[in-house]
Amino acid sequence: MQELSVRHLLGIKDITAEDIQLIFETADNFKDVLNRPIKKVPSLRDITIANVFFENSTRTRLSFELAEKRLSADVINFSSSSSSVKKGETLLDTVNNILAMKVDMIVMRHSSPGAPHFLSRHIDANIVNAGDGTHEHPTQALLDSFSIREKLGDVAGKKVVIIGDILHSRVALSNIFALQKLGAEVMVCGPVTLLPKYIKELGVKVEFDVRKALDWCDVANVLRIQLERQQMKYFPSLREYTLYYGIDKKMLDSLDKQIVLMHPGPINRGVELSSDAADSHHSIILNQVENGVAIRMAVLYLLASRK
Amino acid sequence: MQKRLIVNHQLLEIMVMRLCHQLIENHGDFSDSVIIGLQPRGRQVAQRIQSTLKAILGTTVPTGYLDTTFHRDDFRRRETPLAANATHIDFLIEGKKVILVDDVLYTGRSVRAAMDAMISFGRPANVELLVLIDRLYSRHLPIEPTYVGRRVNSLQSQRVLVEWQGSDTQEDNIWLVTKNEE
């Protein structure tokens, strides 16, 4: 009989390795449920969840919504583009108005780092961070580690390299925390301008040569170049980035071992990953998406049991 | 804590044997029947029933384990959260005669949850319930067992504990456990 040590899932930084294991064990059971003819359980039937997205999303939002529906929760959706946020309402007012309609949990994506942490200090409902700016994206990191565990048996002792735009990536930060808590070795790789200045303080290896990084690793998690977050030029051109940091199948086949290729999506085919690499047998990208629903079911279920 | 032995290992063996013969009376060669043990504690009862039936009939009756955690009605109403167990049912129960197996029948709520959970695997022809111990006068729902090992009168503060021979105990026993007030 275990429970999470937190009431909200704001970031991987705030949870323990035991929490992560509990989420994984629960997700195993939900994955089993998802492979049945009837993929629905009635666990959250008296719970209402609001998906509050102040930033665009396809995968995460669909994945959360599906997870909520599979758990029989009532779901309401909110996106900032079609709401009163445009009329000048504050974040706290918007959320308090949603909560006034008797909502039990909030799944929120916001472009400002720390937005869910701010909310958690002011409201009662359980909050799940679905990405806050360039800060954290905990459920993505959980499903990434869960997918590694599923593919390789365990996360502990594995060598994982995160390649690409580390500076603007919430996926990178959450992944570093999750992988380290689970006992993996982490390396980041990318152009020097796209690596945070103090990234070494987190205890990760830094490599600028993608070929060396691939030689070292068991798992490569490739990130997208987040042009929408880049206020200035970090590298001369996408073409040049692809030349130095793009990964193709030829490169993967020339390694003397089998590595696992991951990507949190959306992929810019032909930039960070070539099409033949993304669709190769190395890739577990679609398994990640499948596992996303089970992980999110586990998170929602475990948080809901914390009143 | 006081423990009173209500069924010792010899009696338990006779009880399981009797339950198996009652099953055979209703199910014949078990060609359309399956056994489903309720996780976590019904699992060992189901295994015992399956192996005893194999000893008598020579056939292996398909046996699965069903976890009802996500179907329970006391989620968010309990002090301690529920931990889920694995469900392992590698057959369809569509059109089958299902024998649900658990160790103790108390309020009937887990059996209700189990019937809900079971529907995910198909529509059974009929469903029966087998329990080792039926705690009388404690039902919250109109659920009654088809096969009963033994009926016991017990207080709400008491607990029925079924021990199977294994790592921590020498022999199979069923105890009635009373917590001391002081």
TrEMBL record, chain A:
One of its GO terms (molecular function) is aspartate carbamoyltransferase activity. The keyword Transferase applies. L-aspartate binds at residues 87, 170, 224. Gene3D superfamilies: Aspartate/ornithine carbamoyltransferase. It is an enzyme of class 2 (transferase). Pathway: Pyrimidine metabolism; UMP biosynthesis via de novo pathway; (S)-dihydroorotate from bicarbonate: step 2/3. Its EC number is 2.1.3.2. Belongs to the aspartate/ornithine carbamoyltransferase superfamily. ATCase family. This is Aspartate carbamoyltransferase. It comes from Pontibacter lucknowensis. The lineage of its organism: Bacteria, Pseudomonadati, Bacteroidota, Cytophagia, Cytophagales.
TrEMBL record, chain B:
The keyword Transferase applies. Keywords: Glycosyltransferase, Transferase. Residues 6-153 form the Phosphoribosyltransferase domain. One of its GO terms (molecular function) is glycosyltransferase activity. CDD domains: PRTases_typeI. InterPro entries: PRTase-like, PRTase_dom, PyrR_bifunctional. PANTHER family: BIFUNCTIONAL PROTEIN PYRR. This is Pyrimidine operon attenuation protein / uracil phosphoribosyltransferase. It comes from Pontibacter lucknowensis. The lineage of its organism: Bacteria, Pseudomonadati, Bacteroidota, Cytophagia, Cytophagales.
